[in-house]
Amino acid sequence: MSPPFTPVFGIPGEWTKGALIEHVKTGMQVKLGTLPIYFCALYSIKLKRDNGQWGSKARANILAVAEQEMLHLALAGNMLRALDGKQLLYDESFMPKYPSQILYDKIDMELRPADIRA
């Protein structure tokens, strides 16, 4: 069992391999934290009687962003592995928790359906 994950904040005093590994892990945690929000919104948009209007377009746009987030997560994972680092994505200390705030900007993260009024 690995020790609990703690994200890094700020630039390290010296860029070492270990510091880079911790920054890559933090980036992975940010990407992993956004994916459930995108998918929750995506799957909440009903397409009945949409006929290619805003609902279809919104779903396509959200899916495109989610795919990019998954690509970024995979690339960061490849980078981590190339640095001989390891991180279990499904470690309880690494998994996002909701509601919470995203790192650095303190933006609220909630899992809820898409809302046209928001």
Give a topology summary.
Layout: H1 17-44, H2 54-82, E1 100-101, E2 108-109
Helix pairs in contact: 1-2
Record keyword descriptors for this entry:
single chain; 118 residues; mainly alpha; two-stranded antiparallel ribbon; 2 helices; elongated
Overview of the molecule:
By secondary structure, the protein is mostly helical. It has one domain (17-109). It has two helices and two strands.
Give Rg in angstroms. 17 Å
Q: Helix count?
A: 2
How far apart lie the N and C ends?
A: 41 Å
The run of helices and strands is: HHEE
Pfam family, one: Ferritin-like
Protein name: Iminophenyl-pyruvate dimer synthase domain-containing protein
Domain Iminophenyl-pyruvate dimer synthase: 25-111
Organism: Ganoderma sinense ZZ0214-1
What's a quick, concise take on this entry?
The protein has about 120 residues and is mainly α.
